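RECORD TYPE: protein structure
NAME: Bifunctional 2',3'-cyclic-nucleotide 2'-phosphodiesterase/3'-nucleotidase
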Amino acid sequence: MSRLLHPISRRDLLGGAAAAGALIMLHPFSARAQANQAHLRIMETTDIHVNVLPYDYYADKANDTMGLSRTASLIDAVRKEAVNSMLIDNGDLLQGNPMGDYIAYERGMKDGDLHPIMKGMNLLGYECSTLGNHEFNYGLSFMDKVLTGANFPFVCANLIRGTELAANPRDDKLYLKPYVILDKKIKDGSGAEQPIRIGIIGFVPPQIMVWDLKNLEGNVKTRDIVEAAKAWVPQMKEEGADIVIALSHSGIDVKQQGDMMENASFFVAGVDGIDAVFTGHQHLVFPGKKDFQSLDGVDSQKGTLQGKPAVMGGFWGSHMGLIDLMLERDGSKWKVVSATSEARPIFERVDNKNKPTVPDDKRIIAALEQDHQATLAYVRRPVGKTSAPLYSYFALVADDPSVQVVSQAQTWYLKDILKNTQWKDVPLLSAAAPFKAGGRNGADYYTDVPAGDIAIKNVADLYLYPNTVRAVEITGAQVKEWLEMSAGIFNRIEPGKADQPLINTDFPSYNFDVIDGVTYEIDLSQPPKYDAKGGLANAGANRIVDLMFDGKPIDPKQKFVVSTNNYRAGGGGNFPDINASKIIYEAPDTNRDVIVRYIVSEGTINPSADDNWSFAPLPGTSAIFETGAKAKDFIAEVKSLKIEPVGEGEAGFAKYRILL
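PREDICTED:
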């Protein structure tokens, strides 16, 4: 039996708008549709990652840039702009914040339990969703129990149950239905109801077999996304689908098409029979003014891939993706004659602050109150211990425990992942930087976690940003240049001169990478080789001296794998030769999540700095730097450097002298 797509009449629209004291504008397609035409608006959420509420559990405070409860208010308003609408999701629902971990690791999912994400989504009337790669992080049994609670179908055309791929994708024993065809009623331009068959097909990145091997090996297998699309879409058309919508939990990449592409949505758009592509996975926004610019076949203003309408609605509920289709009836069939695309945000930037543009949907807030309170208790409860304090007061002048623990966690994580790959015998290094190091953010802007119990929310003090882990393969020579760039944070120091300013305040601390796994000294008498923006300033300079690996001078030609984050690996900071071309592994996990898992695994972590870097001696020379007032409590912990207080600085900072 067919159902009417979320309808709204012009009379209802104008009456409701008048009652609210504001006129809601119909989309042009709804306003001008003729008797043989109909406007269909399709709304997308993607990469929610359990962020149902506008709350950052790591920082333990509200956050106006996230939350399905906010997107839900946007959904209600957007529905009123169209005569016909439907709501879909593009995957990555079950993991990504502490609420997801709480449900998976603490509360569990018994048969009949309803996951918080499903509580929220069931209230909003979703028509369909596909699987994202993070659906598998807690195992197949957990995922199955969660999906059972959905009031809408999940589809995936390239996830196979078992270990064998059929010769023809249509003969695969799929884990879920590859697609659904929804029999609906749609209002045309005259107000009459007409039947329409809407086909929805879904895809997951094949790389889940690497990212979640321990959960999936021997149980499922994946097929190439485009190969699956080319096999199943013709069958959807044979079964009478008027239009075909692709839910592609896969990003946008226009490089030469290859087998088992992770980001294949551009090529999905090129499959005959697909009318619109909903993308995700990359946590970016499309269409828009920032992401996916100047790519062949990609119109980032109109929102098209190979001429087909497409959208990527941000992440964590930050945007809602909209594709509007003008449909025209041709005999007994509907076809797309025009389309528009939009990614609509839930917040705006005003005076350098995030300002919400929509309120919360109170139904979701009420439905999740118990889960919210349980999650707060979970993040505030210790998950492990630290044998030493974690602080960043001296992170810019000496090897630092807050940076050390990030490197330890990254190394622990990637070592396990790479052990069965071609890089298993390549030396693994780790790069990390101090994020909270005073500067323009003030004298209190430092990591400060005492020894003893450590809670999940403390991880936000160690790692501020929702970056994801990356691994790059580089040479020993490139390791040196990476460190030369990092050393640009220091001013040149004249030997034999007292109390010279040490820190270049134009150089951000998050670009001061320390690389663990090697040892080295920084010769401050040399000028910086690179400026703060990565430009070559002094080609002959060599600040990095005595660079050693395994107790021997580093071989410039030797290969190394370096664990870092997506910002640095993607070229952030303009580090020499460090860009996406060097990436060998893109992890599905955030650096924060990796740190939490590391702490849970270890029980008690030992973040004490190992002093793998220091300043080269400059007898009779001293330099001055500023740090937080509480630094005095930790001077004795710094063994590799002679530090002494020299009085108060401005705006609450304290001044210290280092004897070089």
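COMMENT: The mean pLDDT is 91.
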